[in-house]
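Teaching assistant here, posting this on the class forum so everyone can see the example we discussed in section. The complex has two components, and the goal was to see what a joint structure prediction looks like when all of them are supplied at once.
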Amino acid sequence: MSAELTLELIDQLKEAVETRDKRFIIGALQNEHAVDIAEILDNLDTDSCKYIFTLLPDQLCADVLSQLEDDTRRDFLKVFSSKEIAHFMDYTDSDDAADILNGQPVKVREEALALMNHREKSNQIIDLLHYEDDCAGGLMATELVKANINWSVKQCIEEIRRQAERVEKVLTVYVVDDTEILLGRVSLKKLILSHDDTLVKDIYSRKIPTVQTYYEEEQVVEIMQKYDMEALPVVNVQGRLLGRITIDDVIDVITEQAELDRQIMSGISEDIEADDSVWMLSRARLPWLIIGMIGGLLGARFIGFFEEDLTLVPAMAFFIPLITATGGNVGIQSSTIVVQALANSSTMMLSTYQRLLKVILVAVLNGVVIASLVFCFNLFFANFHLALVVSVALFSVVMLASLTGTITPIILDKININPALASGPFITTTNDLLGLAIYFSVAHLLF
Amino acid sequence: MSAELTLELIDQLKEAVETRDKRFIIGALQNEHAVDIAEILDNLDTDSCKYIFTLLPDQLCADVLSQLEDDTRRDFLKVFSSKEIAHFMDYTDSDDAADILNGQPVKVREEALALMNHREKSNQIIDLLHYEDDCAGGLMATELVKANINWSVKQCIEEIRRQAERVEKVLTVYVVDDTEILLGRVSLKKLILSHDDTLVKDIYSRKIPTVQTYYEEEQVVEIMQKYDMEALPVVNVQGRLLGRITIDDVIDVITEQAELDRQIMSGISEDIEADDSVWMLSRARLPWLIIGMIGGLLGARFIGFFEEDLTLVPAMAFFIPLITATGGNVGIQSSTIVVQALANSSTMMLSTYQRLLKVILVAVLNGVVIASLVFCFNLFFANFHLALVVSVALFSVVMLASLTGTITPIILDKININPALASGPFITTTNDLLGLAIYFSVAHLLF
């Protein structure tokens, strides 16, 4: 739906809610995709949303609820009773239900779980609530279709008929033994292509990547991406099938990770959006601004030690921005290349020694080019002595910034901090100080 | 497979190739996933790879070929004749085949297409070769399963049996009319759950998002992500079904885009990896280093105009790094928030006026905090006059850097340049100069 159409529809819906025009509301929404309806409801007040919910089919309401933004949903659910929430949960996939209930006050959560009609499902949701958000257990849903290895294709299809009622997307059929241990998978395609009396054990595929509940979401992403899987089964330590992670959830993880990396690289310390409040936006930005400020003040104190040199050669001050900017740029480039290499674990074949040699060679090459260009320029505009100081300092800054930029993300990664931090204000602040130290030391020595 | 296991296997395979130990090679590889074999072959020389290829089944070889890195594949295919390449293409999905042939010299490409056994398929590949890499046409494969709207479920399943032979993953069955116009879709699950004599027209779902061949890959990603689709059908202007884009290709697009954004934000101007040559790594980094250098030299010339002020108050130089660093940090934070908002087109409801007001409020808040902290600090370490100059300049820098950081990505986006460019050295270089101009102007006025 285009933005203009949506805005028009929102206006019409507001009017229809006021005049209680049921027919219009039902006609306008019942055939829309849940995600489109969620986008529209995001722009209506809570009471209007609740009125609209009373008119739509239960399944659609549950789907819309899963698609709402976390903040909107929290506000929205306040006007529903625990009984009503429990009713929606009966229609919601277990992983979404766990996420939704996780965002509720404990009292509402417990009441809703107790009031659900599907006992088996509420137990599954309770199990899912134990897992952290960012591990395989927190991503998986318990809805899946499975077949016993000893069944025939005919039995299998009958079972699928029964199980598929409550599974929105089948994608693949998991093959288990009598104790629910996962043995492999068989595709719907293969089942359709096989004779009725073929046995599952003769057509199933044994090779299937799995994860355990405690696997980190990064590992889940890596496996599903590497093996082009639409769904990844989750097992416990014994190999018992517990659930599956579907690709749509993994795509959300990938885009969230990328957004988080970009924020960390920009010195934003909380997950914020342009729509958040002025206070939240400021609060997320101030920590790194203050760290940068402290770096700047330390720099000021440091340059202060060289006040005499500056009084002698005021032109030295001209090149301070060149030195600090070059250090920052080189440092961020270096760390980004390392962060990227850390993310692609497949590039494991180069030894640390070879890597370091390459970093140094690239730094020498870039350092020589930049230092020479600046030297030529300065021959025209500054005296020879200063030109020499600036270029020697620049070359040293490029070398050192390359090394810190390369080593910092590796260290961060080792101590389990997101290495993307090294591609942001962290490295520019450090390199500003490093650059000033080099510049003024070189000047002090050569003057 | 773990890294250690892989390294051990590579050594064993090298030995087995030398001793022509066919049995070991076949045993070690034939049950591995194509992507694992591709990773292993990446570490062997081309002749060994070719020998191993002669031992593996054709389908597996074709799959491995699709999974190889572009550079490796180009080198690797040089030792095969056009006839042999054509043979692999007969076993490769049309989208991968088009990508592989696209990387070949024109002569090899034309010969391979002419020598393929499957005439229909080579024609489809020729069609696909016309599309740009980064549009829907360039992402789609022609392999899919479709059913006529007038068929019964029984007819439909028989047809699927026939068509599914050459389609690795069915995912969904597209419903078309007699002229191949796409009308909707029906899931395998629904087919299995329905009676044999039910008509497709009574069970298919009409609402299905589609794209045309010229859609940009960003639009494809947005649609598939929004509607949680495993496959997105591609149609021509008349609505005729041409192919489908599968989710694995879209995930690759998402991760490539994220990587590209990170590189652009870090001032890296080409798509490089840590494994690339020293020369390539330098070349990708020099452009932005040189632009930063020019900015630094302009800054030097600019400060030069105020040499007299500096001789009078050398302490002014102390705060240059603080001013430039703050401008850079604020600018990058602001632009990242805008870039993120531009990517999430759903946040369209705030007017430009409201947005701008919010940006200004956040800037005022952050500016007041930073300027006050620095002022307090400077009261102890610098004279009152200089403290005032620095804080007034800092506040102005925060305000102006917020505005340039907010406006630049919007302008870049409007003229179809990746707005992430504004979260990198582009904005830090601009803001360095802006900051210096403000600082020295304020100083000149207030001293």
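For the discussion questions: Residues 91 and 283 of chain B are 39 Å apart (CA to CA). Chain B has three domains: 3-134, 145-255, 278-446. Think about how each of these relates to the inputs above.
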